Fold these 2 entries.
Entry 1:
Amino acid sequence: MSNIQPGSGYGFSSGGYGFTLNVTDPFPKEALPVVHPFKIVNVSIVSNKVRFQVSPGTLNNLMPTLDDYVTSTQVKLDRKTAGVADPPTEELASSNFDSTTKTCYVTLRAGIPTAAPYVFPDTDVTSNRYPQIIGGNTSYTADTDTYGYLQIGTIAVDDITTPTVVTVTQFVTGSLWADRIKMGDETATYYWARI
């Protein structure tokens, strides 16, 4: 006679050669997608245009903006409407893709203010130099004294005029801290670190 009785969280079976316990979850939970700062999400094709969002993340404790195609304005990634998350969605036309590689390069751009003190990045959300995420057809944009660039990922399509397949590649997986160093007449150098 077995001394083991069925209980909460396990099952068992017994026979002439012993018994076994089954402790696996009989009702496994659905695996949730991993979402991290600056993840390119909700990529879709609507009327031959690719739309995407970027999960909220910070650059030097500032929430970057994304060009929202609905409002045609730069909107912070963590926008809420009536207390509910309402992230901006950028829409890409064929001109946003490199015609050879059929790739759009999703880049974080941040600049310095137009007047002293020249802190980096610009903290004025109404300024064009405030941190923003842009989707463009250039794989590398050289840093300047005004702007620093960091590619956070790419969106590739099978055809830039009538896309049907989209492939996302992610490079940045966390919030960031950046520094700008300018020495004499040399072009400013930007250093990026995941936090």
Note: The chain has one domain: 11-194.
Entry 2:
Amino acid sequence: MSNELFTELESFFHASGKQEAWKFLLHFTDYIEGVDDLVDEPKNIELVNKVAAKAMALYSSSYWGENKRELYLVARLIHFTYFDIVEWELSDEIWKKQHAKVLSHCGYNMLLAILLHEFGDFAYQRFSVQIREHAHLKHLNDPI
């Protein structure tokens, strides 16, 4: 995420008194990046240990405990989407490889869900296009 967009979102959450939601999002991002590392890197017990610890901390956090009813389905969709695109990355079909690059950012759906949950339609609409464009533009010229 661009520094400007990150700073704007961080300020938005903090100004609205939603620091716990922001903290959860940071931990969620760290966790899903760890899962990606587990998929991309060779077997590494230390990394598995770190990612497992991140998962335990994330899913036992007070924010998750208070909001898991609303966020569980989002987390599952992100999980399944990610592992679908891992398969697409290995495909011989160019369109699958291309779309896998963009869909690898499916974790942004947690941010969008929390924006909608915490702030409503206005906040979602304020940020959603910027968030999606960032993910898509980041991979616009990636080699396949």
Note: DSSP finds seven helices and no strands in the chain.
